[in-house]
Structures are given as structure tokens and as C-alpha cells.
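Session log. Operator J.P. requested a structure for one protein chain; no other inputs attached. Running the standard single-chain path with C-alpha cell output.
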Amino acid sequence: MIKHAGYVKYAAVPVILLGLAVFFGAFYVVPTNEHAVVVRFGEIVRVHSTPGIHAKVPFMDVVYPYPKWIQEHESPPVETVLGDKRNVIFDTFIIYKINDPAAFHTRIRTQERLGHRIDDVVFGAVRVVAGLYAYEDILSGKREEIIEQTMERIKATARDMGVEVILAAIKNFTLPEQNLQAIYENMKSERVRIAQGILSAGRAEANRITSEADRKAQEIIASALKTSQTLRGEGDKEAQLIISDAMGSAYSLYEQMKAVEFFKKGLQDNTVLVVDPKTGIFKYLNDMSGSRILRE
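Structure written below.
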């Protein structure tokens, strides 16, 4: 009898364990920061987004928890072609959360797969938007417009996956190495061209200034020569007037001196002349001063 009771005791252990398993398997807890999707035979039967303890059918219902908190995903840099045929590398990241756990379970289900899908969504949006702009637009004020359009496309596509994109941002726009080298060479050539242009302009300006200085110097010299010639002519004219005035004033004295010289040398003693004493140099014979000169 005792032996039979021992068998009963040992046989009851699995039953108890099974009962506990069934009891605890009939309930599940939804934490504050998680969603819970209950699936039965591959079909979603319930979705819980509020915290609490919920019942399920043991061995038939499977509960899939998904996070409710905000998450960040950084996609690998993607190289794409802009509207001006230049290649640019976009470095992006997004901030998101799962807001539709049923859609997320149906289309994504795992976080690893979500990362790949987000990368595909980001790459597709970046390529579409990049084709609408040129590199100069990225450098100018259209940068924010490019980011906004990219974000709108990512949001629209992620919504079908049960994911709400809170922020999609482009951390950086960079050029591939070969493009950077080409741009550096173009910048170098452009700077050389600008420097040569400035040098040529400087030489042309120097030549212009030199020519202008030579022209002004010639004008100054010509003006000085003209002025000197004018002054010399006026001086000669003034000198002639002075000489003429002087000659006019001294003519009578000159005539008297010539008359005296004639009377001294031209007339001999006992010379008889028949002349008109009122004309020529003989008029001085009537002058007392002239008589004195003869007597002397």
C-alpha cells in the first residue's frame, strides 16, 4: 500500500507541472515600452499597445513584442547622381518609432530586416530627390529644401511598414574622391586664369597710365615751348619798340654829329659852297651851336 502511494506521488508531479505551464502560458504581460501582437496559426488575433496582463490560448497563441520607444538608424553613405550629372555621397540617418505593430509584424517583423528596409527606403528617396537638383543647389539655400523633400518621401514609404519617421536628416553631402580631385584641379585652373586675368589687366592699366603720362608730358612740353616762344616773340617785339623809340629820340643828335664830322673833314680852308642853308645838314650853319662846333 505504501509503495502504491509513492507511485501516485511521483505521477502527480508532471501533472502539476503541466498545470502550472498551462496556467502561466495562458497569461502574458505587456510592458509600458512595448507593443504586443498575438498571433494564432499565422493570423494576428489581437494587438496590445497598453501595458497590463492579458490572457491567451496556451500552445496556440504566440505573442510578439515590439518596442514603442524612439529609435535611431544611421544608413551607410549612398553615392548618387545629381541633375547636373555630378556624383555626390549622401550621409543620412533617421529617427523613428513603431506606431502600427500589426503592419510592422506583417511587413517587417524583425529589427534586422527593418534596418535593411530603411536603408532601401532612404537610398530610393535620396536618388529620386538628388536627380531634381544640381550641385550648386546643395551649396546654396536649397539645401533645406532637398532635406525636406527627402524626409517626406521616406515618411510616406515607411508609413506602410508601420513605422513613423520623426526625423530624416542628411548629415553631410560629400563628393567622391575622383570628383574632389577634378574639382580641385578646376579650382586651381580657375585661380590661375583669374590671376592671369588680373595680371593682364594690371599690365594694360600700367600701359594706359604710362601712355597717359607720356601724352600729358608731351602736352606740357608743347605748351611750355609755345609759351616760351610767345614770350620770346613778345620780348623781341618789346625790344624793337624800345630800340625804335630810342632811335627816334636820338636821330637829331645823330644827324648833328654826322654834320659836324662832315664840316671838320669835308670842308677845307677857303672853301666856297653855294647851298641852301635851310636844308640838309647845312641848316646847322644857322645854329649857334653849330657855329661853335665849326670854330672849334
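Operator note: The CA atoms of residues 21 and 137 lie 64 Å apart.
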